[in-house]
Amino acid sequence: MPHPSTIRAAPVALLSLLAASCSTGDSMMRPVQFHSPAAEALLDSGVQMEILVEDVQLGEGPIWLADEQRFVFADVLGNKLLSWTEAEGAGVYLEPSGSTGYAPVYEDGVLGANGLALAPDGALILCQHGDRRVASLVRTDGVPGPFSTVVDRHQGKRFNSPNDLTVAPDGDLYFTDPPYGFLNLAESDPSVARMVFEEELRELPFCGIYRRDAQTGWTTLLNDSMDFPNGVGLSLDGRWLYVNSSNMADPEMMRFSTADGTGGLFYKGPFDEDAAGWFDGMKVHSSGNIFTTGPGGILVISPEGEKLATIAIPDPATNCCFDEDEEYLYITTFAYAARLKLKR
After folding, report:
1. Which residue of 79, 203, 272, 331 is most buried, as measured by CB atoms within 10 A?
2. Residue pLDDT, tens place only, 201-246
3. Measured between alpha carbons, how far is 216 from 165 in angstroms, rounded to an integer?
């Protein structure tokens, strides 16, 4: 069982405070701290941040659907997907999203869908905490269809709660499987780093990083060395899988070979002494640089493991994604979703 002092979880006691910090339509300039001139091609010295959706219980898994010009993300505690478009504003895209009765579940846990991705054929792939599987659904004329299971077990045992994923150009799927679906929110107190898990339904004694081969359909355990594997991203050449550790007490990013799962520490600071936040979700930019949530805001890290820039945001972010032109970086937090204007 993971040590409770290291788990990343939704700070439930702070959600109401965060929700009150911003309102839909609010726009504010956020400062950028450059650590290398290389980041100046990506960012101005300040970026405009616009609040798109508020009253979110726990935002995660942002994705941009280019064919619909739609931003979609998960409200994990609400067990639904929310969306936003320029024309329609905010609304519910799919409900339920991650807990449908498919698998035995700890009823008071964190059960909604989390990470989202698009398959090469356009199907929406979801990491479902409550159903303890990776699932897909086909979108027809912008309407989500029924779920189908992509994978739900390793060596005959149900996953913990698949959390985040990324899809390679050839369709291979990489995903992480930490234990957050078993988190007892009522007994946990993030303010003192006390996290309580209910282990009765858990079948796997580790938290794995997996690859599902698109050609064979076979899912293999790539690496099981991390206690809290979370956000993932692929290097542009496909040789490396970046994996964020959501250990609040020891923030770090790992890197593993996609060929054999070997690897280790990729980035571990430095961070400013008062930098709030932790590593969670990430996305890889077309430049090869990694935009990741982390201590201090949104960090930009080079493929060589150098911190290039920090975008300061008012609240800890949980995840991020780009639109098709990389004009905006969309972010999710514990209470709202927003977008940041990038330099093109």
Report:
1. 331
2. 999 999 999 999 999 999 999 999 999 999 999 999 999 999 999 8
3. 19
- 72, 127 contact by CB (below 8 A): no
What's the pTM? 0.92
DSSP string over 131-190: TTEEEEEEEETTEEEEEEEEE-EETTEE-S----EEE-TTS-EEEE--SGGGB-TTT-BG
Q: What is the dihedral of CA 62, 65, 66, 71, to 10 degrees?
A: -50
CATH of the domain at 302: 2.120.10.30
Give the CB-side neighbour count of residue 166, counting CA atoms within 13 A: 24
Per residue in 102-134, pLDDT (tens digit) is 999 999 989 999 999 999 999 999 999 999 999
Distance CA 146, CA 138 (A): 7
Q: Domain containing 183: what range? A: 4-341
- 69 φ/ψ sector (left φ>0, alpha ψ -120 to 50, else beta): left
171-184 burial string, b = 16+ CB within 10 Å, else e?
ebbbbbbbbbbbbe
Count the domains in the chain: 1
